[in-house]
Amino acid sequence: MESPLPFVHAPLQLALWCLGAFVCGSIPFGLIVVKLLGQGDVRSKGSGNIGATNVSRVAGKGPGILVLLLDIAKGIIPVVLARRAGILESMLPWIGFGAVLGHVFSPMLRFKGGKGVATAFGIVLAVQWRLGALPLAFFVAALWLTRHVSLGSILAALMLPLEVVLLALSGPYGGFRALGEHAPYLIAWAFIAVLVIANHHENIRRLQAGTESKLWGATPDDQFHV
């Protein structure tokens, strides 16, 4: 993480990159893949979502894995291209946020979409892959203990900004002053986490009620999508 990091870097250029990331993120790969396989509209089957989980349920594990990788790529590609174009490291998460926003509110689906988990993971891999260790550990632990993909996704999203804050505090120039210097970077990660968690509001209600479906033996009512 650089220090200090300025918040504004060529505002128009940054806005264009965020817009491009939004367009990239808005591509509904789940819908496209299932239709190309002759399985119709994935939104009318299973849980009705376009994510990898429902694609796996409707079209099989292979297509589901393909959609998962494509959704992850939607987070990786804009960030990698922006870095090569010279965009500051501090601004890369904001470009990634644009990709997640596009995935969640796709204009191609009347501003509906997935929950952004896979795309957010792609952003982490592209910006600084080591940041994915703690969120991934919480995801795997929650999934193993509860079989709830949604709970694992929520916990992973919570851990991401927390990990970034802890790294800022513990670095060679750490301390609360570092939080101010890295504020744009930290806020971007917080926005990504909040967006992912907010899109799990239905899952949260079902978890509280004890009616959330589980990965093993999941029913078509499972609303998780990545």
**Shape call:** globular
Content-based structural category = mainly alpha
Low-confidence stretches: 1-9, 218-225
The strand count comes to 0
Question: How do you describe this structure in short?
Answer:
The chain is built from eleven helices and no strands.
Describe the structure.
The protein has 226 residues and is mainly α. The chain has 11 helices and no strands. The protein has helices at residues 11-25, 29-36, 52-59, 61-84, 92-104, 117-128, 133-146, 149-170, 176-181, 183-198, 201-209. Helix 2 crosses helix 4, helix 4 packs across helix 6 and helix 5 (92-104) packs parallel to helix 10 (183-198).
Show the helix and strand layout.
Layout (H helix, E strand, L loop, with lengths): L10 H15 L3 H8 L15 H8 L1 H24 L7 H13 L12 H12 L4 H14 L2 H22 L5 H6 L1 H16 L2 H9 L17
Helix pairs in contact: 1-4, 1-5, 2-3, 2-4, 3-4, 4-5, 4-6, 5-6, 5-10, 7-8, 8-10
Entry keywords:
globular; mainly alpha; 11 helices; 65% helix; 226 residues
